[in-house]
Amino acid sequence: MMILVFAQWCINHNLDPIAIYTEAYPYQEKNKELIEALDLTVPKKESDLIDSETILEVLSLYGNDDLAFVVSDYIHRKNLK
User: Can you tell me the distance from the alpha carbon of 59 to that of 2, in angstroms, rounded to the nearest whole number?
Assistant: First the structure.
């Protein structure tokens, strides 16, 4: 569920989820779960809002601190909500 929320948040903000994940975890092999989650995402226009606070809480809840750090950086640099 966390991976799907992350992927959809990226889609909603015109960001590449695989690139962001790779930035957070550069030495990991391809994340099969992320690739599968991308198949479940919907276009931005069809998606419910996932605000930036929610994505950071979800990532932290699941212990993805490195990914939360990178996402937080994108939020601040691009002034995402």
Answer: 7
CB neighbour class for 3 (10 Å; exposed up to 12, middle 13-18, buried from 19): buried
pLDDT digits (tens, 9 = 90+) for 44-71: 999 999 999 999 999 999 999 999 999 9
For residue 80, pLDDT beyond 90: no
Amino acid at 27: Y
DSSP string, 68-79: HHHHHHHHHHHT
- What b/e sequence results for 23-44 when a residue is b if at least 16 CB atoms lie within 10 Å of its CB, and e otherwise? bbeeeeeeeeebeebbeebeee
